[in-house]
Amino acid sequence: MTRPTILVFIFLFSLISCVEKKDNTEKNATIPIAEKVGQMIMVGFRGTAISDSDAIYKMVTDYHIGGVVLYSRDLPSKETVKRNVISPTQLKKLNADLQAIDATKLLIAIDEEGGFVTRLSVDDGFEYHKSHQAIGKLNNLDSTKVWANTMASELAELGINMNFGPVIDLNINPLNPIIGARERSFSDSLETVIAHAKVFIKEHTKNHISCVPKHFPGHGSSDKDSHKGLANVTTTWSEKELTPFKTLINDKDINVVMTSHVYNENLDTLPATLSPKIIEDLLRTDFGFDGVIISDDMQMRAISNFYEFETAIEKAIIAGVDMLLFSNNAAPCPENTPDCIEIPFDPEIAKRAINHILKLVEEGKISEERIDDSYQRILALKKQL
After folding, report:
1. Cβ contact 122:150 at 8 Å
2. N or C: less crowded end of the chain, CB within 10 Å?
3. Is 51 left (phi over 0), alpha (psi -120 to 50) or beta?
């Protein structure tokens, strides 16, 4: 190719890029702010099938929510009550019906880690997947590849496009009630956690499933369960817990991260999900992460016991969270726990959250530019899928 030809090619490429950028900008300007806000919400719902009279159908059509999260059990009622999952055939149809509701792709997420943390039971006809800990102890990357690919292939076949994993917390406290004791960490070794996480992510990506490494900035040293209340890691956390996240970001392995609700005075006096220092300063600025940041469930007691629904939403968005997760599946308070606040199932929780965010924008507490930043990240993620 001659030099003049190259220059012409560069000019035409630049011109096309400018036109595409202008078109995208103009198109984006026509998207209502309410629809952009809707994309920032992911919710859990009740139902093993859907119709146009169901609340979740309306949340997708009327409010354009960004995603849903699937569960096997309905905790607010009884653990034996089926939530979204009965069988592979049923779940595949449910997901196809969900995806067909709206033209914008829906994120259909699940916590499928293996071991204790699975929504897809063998008793219901699904594959059995070993825990992170079992895979880490085996410490054979070829075996990890088979394990992760089997899991990802099953999810893809079912129509699931987002997995809340891998867990990249270090197993610093093996008695940790929510990480170590449930075999959710690959290892206490940085090298082991990073190596197996990379394989997990690669196999999911090959199957067009977005992985969501968790729980930033590290939950492995806690001695409390943030589902049930405050998880203070101030005296147990160490900076090395950031390394798996930083490595995966530097190596461009990930485009989504999930925050934790741990309280860590080494970093801030707010829970991580609500902390600008942890999310905006550390994760965004210091680590250079420009992907989607998803909160852990905003209804976990580490948040809901201490912050009003509206306050938590405002603080999370100001902190830098792009997508707010509401499981709508909080377990009832245990007996003799007067400080625990009951969280009933709310079929219109997405509507409540969206309307409050719109109010915050109207009052000038959150800018439209801030909403648009999250909207663009979420849209870019969906295009990659």
Report:
1. no
2. N
3. beta
Neighbouring C-alpha atoms within 13 Å toward the C-beta of 371: 26
Question: What percent helix, strand, coil does the chain show, rounded to 5?
Answer: 45, 10, 45
Contact 196, 141 (CB under 8 A): yes
What is the dihedral sign for C-alpha 44, 49, 54, 57? positive
Token digits of residue 152: 């990802």
Cis peptide before 217 (omega within 30 of 0): yes
User: In whole angstroms, what is the distance from residue 316 CA to residue 311 CA?
Assistant: 9
Please state, in angstroms and rounded to a whole number, the distance separating the CA atoms of residues 379 and 322: 11
Which strand (E) or helix (H) includes residue 2? none
Neighbours of 8 (CB within 10 A): 12
- Residue 219 is encoded by which pair of tokens? 């939950």
Nearest to 324, CA basis, from 35, 34, 44:
44
Cα–Cα distance, 184 to 170 (Å, whole number): 9
Q: Yes or no: say if 98 and 68 are a contact pair by the CB < 8 Å rule.
A: yes
The widest CA-to-CA distance across the chain, in whole angstroms, is 81
Residue 191: CB atoms within 10 A of its CB come to: 11
Q: Which of 123, 62, 90 is nearest to 348 (CA)?
A: 62
Pairwise CA distance, residues 33 & 300, whole Å: 28
Rounded to whole angstroms, what are the CA distances from 273 to 226, 297, 325?
12, 10, 11
Which portions of the chain are predicted below pLDDT 50? 8-9, 19-22, 24-26
299-314 pLDDT per residue, tens:
999 999 999 999 999 9
Contact between residue 240 and residue 193 where contact means Cβ atoms under 8 Å apart: no
Angle among Cα 275, 278, 284 to the nearest 5 degrees reads 115
> Is 213:243 a contact under the CB 8 Å cutoff?
no
Provide the 8-state DSSP code for 379.
H
pLDDT in tens, 195-224: 999 999 999 999 999 999 999 999 999 999
Q: How far apart are CA 296 and CA 226, in angstroms?
A: 10
Sorted by sequence, the CB contacts under 8 Å of residue 216 that are 6+ apart come out as 245, 257, 258, 259, 260, 272, 278, 283
Q: Which residues pair with 107 in a beta bridge?
A: 67
Amino acid at 324: L
Q: Is 78 left (phi over 0), alpha (psi -120 to 50) or beta?
A: beta
